[in-house]
Amino acid sequence: MGISTISDWTGQIGVLTIGAIRAEGGTRSHVVRIGGEKDLPCIGSPPTGHMPVVAYEIADDAGRWPAVASRAAGEVSSDPAAWARYAETEIRPDIIRLYLTSTRSHGFSDTAGIRKTIEEVLQATSLPLIIEGSNDPAIDSEVYLTIGEAAAGERILLGTAEANRYRSVAAAAMAYGHSIIAQSPIDINLAKQLNILLREIGIPRDRIAIDPYTGALGYGFEYSYSVMERIRTAALKGDEDLAMPMISSAVDSLTVKEVREAEGDDADRIAVAWELYAMLPAYLAGAAIVSARHPKTIPLLRDACSSIFQAHHGGGE
Amino acid sequence: MASLKPLDIYKLLPKKNCKECGDPTCLTFAMKLAGGKAQPGQCPYLDENAKAILGASTRPPVQKVKIGVGERSFAVGEEMVQYRHEKTFIHEPGIMTAVLDTMPADRIKEITTDVRDYVLTRIGTDLRLNGIAIRCESGNPGEFSRAVEAVESVADLPEVLMSIDPLCMEAGLGVSGNYRPLIHAATHENYHEMCRLAKKFSCPLAIRADTLDSLADLSSKCATEGVSNLLIDLTSTSLHEVLNRTTAVRQHAVTRQTPALGYPVFLDCAQQGLDDAFLITGVVKFGSVLVCNPLSQPARRALLVLRQNIYTDPQKPIQITPGLYRVGNPGMDAPVLLSVNFSLTFFTLQGYLEASRVPSVMLVVDTEGLSVLTAVASGKLQEAMVREAIAKFDLGNAVSHRKLIIPGYAAPLSGRIEDATGWKVLVGPRDAADIAEFLLQEWKP
Question: Is the alpha carbon torsion for B154, B158, B164, B168 positive or negative?
Fold first, then answer.
């Protein structure tokens, strides 16, 4: 009989490329490609589409970062370039996601500072980058143009566009050849609408990653899980406005009560569990990039994702 | 056999519109049958042919199997869908902590006691580990029954007895066979004997074979022997293969393409270095009985919460009771934040408020479980209900000021809320993560 999975999908997820090597005008050692799947995640041998991508998240201002994550990284967390170097050599994620948390301070205006940070981080690591900018519309334009320009040629993934503030992000991405993260609040229709808006202002389909927003485990994670499954299956059924690869980050995981109230080593262990138990399901629901902030989560998540992706695990490089 | 559509079912009904089933017409009854919301037996006039067809196609495509007896017993199976958003997943997987019959009896009792007593209470629900799996490592019937006795001596928990040797299995069943343990496992080599034991003790049986075809063949053989309370063991050392096989089995079951695979799934998640990954995959991707090594505190908490999340019925979002919620020890000058009764919104805001260390009051209004953005868009959040909530929950006596911080996404309503309530409205951030910064910079009573 040969019983196997039933695959009658007609759609395919688009491919997004992050990073640029020298020949392409960048300075990265390699590029990361996500998407390309014609089925549910990791179905088929070999599975359709690209390898899982695990992002390690760092911040330029560790004062605005979960203490359990910056403490685990140690001294390097006071210097984004050192943190990025440590990430590449010690933590070994597939990609680094830099949050410019300094832009979230009241009355922020130090764009020269973030330009310098980005240049130093690009020097310190050869991994492809995701860079997250401000979340205040008043400074978006200046911040995103600064990021876009400072990383020109590097084909970064730039975050984050939302339905009512996407123009600055989109303009910076288009001007400097980057891709963007399109975030919507756990709703398939809003995700689709935002992608249509972005298309209408000229962002090509292959330059968008969908972020459906991920609630922390125990704090609404199930909504995010199902929205990701719905977006993925809608795309596989042929909805091209949802056929972009997804990115998921457990952004709230390290601020939940379970982690906040733990002490010492327990705090690290519960932080790692809370990230792993949300991000691996997110990968199984269809997220091409899964992200974590605790350095100890990264190798566990990479091993788990690659063993789900591959018929025989153990490789990973 | 494919699932029947309402019109196909309607053709099999008497079309009398007699209303004896409780529905006004045969057509509405047919629609309920198709949706699994009615049973064929409710129609008194079905002919034998219709009964046979409807009986086979309206029973749940995954067999219900009960494991254990008493308070901690649990059922698995009865699943109807591939994705939880299509309807809901029904029965949470049972998490069975493994002991070895080669362990000292004290260690076995210690692990069993821990599983018996561990409880995590979240959102008013007690989350527990489900039972004990006893592995026959010794190959010795005496050792195996001694281990089962050690488990039985401290708890009445559901059990999995794990041995492919019928002699060992019979020895174990001699101890706990009356308490409906899961027998693991029948193979093509031993199924006659294992089926005999399953019938003798009325126990469910897990079956094991290398391929899905071979499993379908074995389940049919067991059914022919009279054992239909089966679980299908899909354990593999490759997690990739586990995912592909659990997905295929659920697809073949719910589409009724291969009824011989319409049974709940068993997974042995005690896999070198990847226990968490196996358990996570088992919980989200169709596992029903998951065997694992004793879990660390962080792993068991995360696992139980993940299971609770995935098995929450998406048709009934968890709502928070509207009212005033105090964070920290708010005084009369504490800030008041308007929020909605969507659980995710509530917990997220509450979490960030706690983290901010600014004591505050949350005014939660009833948006029927919608988030701020969707409630504003659909008109479920309106100024009148804010005014009513302020009066109903006596907010005026909870604080001495008259200022209300509303969510950033509710900014379009700020003027109308101000007019309707007479309270001064401050528009807060859209993202709860920014609330600490906002309170620090903007809040003055």
Answer: positive
